[in-house]
Amino acid sequence: MAPHLILRPLRGTAQRLLQQLSSGRLAISTPTRNYISEMRKDAFDGNMLRLLRNEVEYEIDRSPISKSVPEFESFMIDKRAGEQWIRLNKKFGEKEEIKVDVTMFDRSVPVKKKGGSSKEDEVYLHLTMIVDIVKGEGNDMLEFVCTAWPDSIEIHKVIMRGHGPIAAQHYTGPRFKELDDKLQDELYDFLETRGIDDDLAVFLHEYMRNKDKIEYVRWIAKTISILERK
Questions:
Q1: 3-state class of 85 per DSSP?
Q2: Beta strands in 47-195 (DSSP E)
Q3: What are the E-state strand segments in the chain?
Q4: What are the structural domains of the chain?
Q5: How far is residue 34's CA from residue 29's CA, in Å, rounded to a whole number?
Q6: pLDDT tens readout for residues 81-103
Q7: Contact (CB, 8 A) for 68 and 212
Q8: pLDDT tens for residues 114-142?
Q9: CB neighbour class for 58 (10 Å; exposed up to 12, middle 13-18, buried from 19)
Q10: Within 10 Å of residue 204's Cβ, how many Cβ atoms?
Q11: Maximum Cα–Cα distance across the chain
């Protein structure tokens, strides 16, 4: 048989297939679609993994992570791995227990450089501190709500309460700045005597910067671990 007689029906079949594909009547098989989708997913996951690993390297190269210290002066530190706060505990004297809960950085305030433009503003970071002081066998505690600035402690509220949560109608006292100036000074001295002072504020800012990096790298590592699962 002449070659053109053999090729003629094949040409017709090919043309019909092309027409069906262009008109949408002939769909690509499901296995082919799944294969393409899987390739795209693998490429997307691979790119994300690469970016995450680069981010870890960048963070560590920019400023290496320090090993968390277990104590500061007479305070024992519970670093609360994986959480956004830490706890410090100490005893003061024979009957007094002090507990300090400190958040990670939760606010910042812009501070203008002297003689500089607004583009050169510095950021003044903020930590929230809750200081609970319990004396003797009683259930009542004296609670100080404070801010730890990079080099100082600021008291906002002094509350007398029990160990349980504060009731909605419980009187929590006046604002700290409404108190007599001499009483304010005495309360600052009261905390400083117990190690709640400017040195502690400096330490907490250094500690929390390191914890912030540790938690960020931990978060990236967990994300990578999930993406790598098959």
A1: strand
A2: 71-72, 75-78, 85-92, 96-103, 107-111, 122-135, 141-149, 152-161
A3: 71-72, 75-78, 85-92, 96-103, 107-111, 122-135, 141-149, 152-161
A4: 3-62 (no CATH), 71-220 (3.10.280.10)
A5: 9
A6: 999 999 999 999 888 999 999 99
A7: no
A8: 665 555 667 889 999 999 999 877 668 89
A9: exposed
A10: 23
A11: 116
- For 125, residues 6+ apart whose C-beta sits below 8 A from its C-beta are 105, 107, 108, 149, 150, 205
Q: Which two tokens stand for residue 45?
A: 């996951």
Question: CA-to-CA distance for 131 and 75, rounded, in angstroms?
Answer: 13
Model pLDDT, residue 38: 62
Helix/strand/coil for 129: strand
Place of tokens 């419980």: 170
Q: Give yes or no for residue 26 having a pLDDT over 60.
A: no
Sign of CA dihedral 188, 191, 195, 201: negative
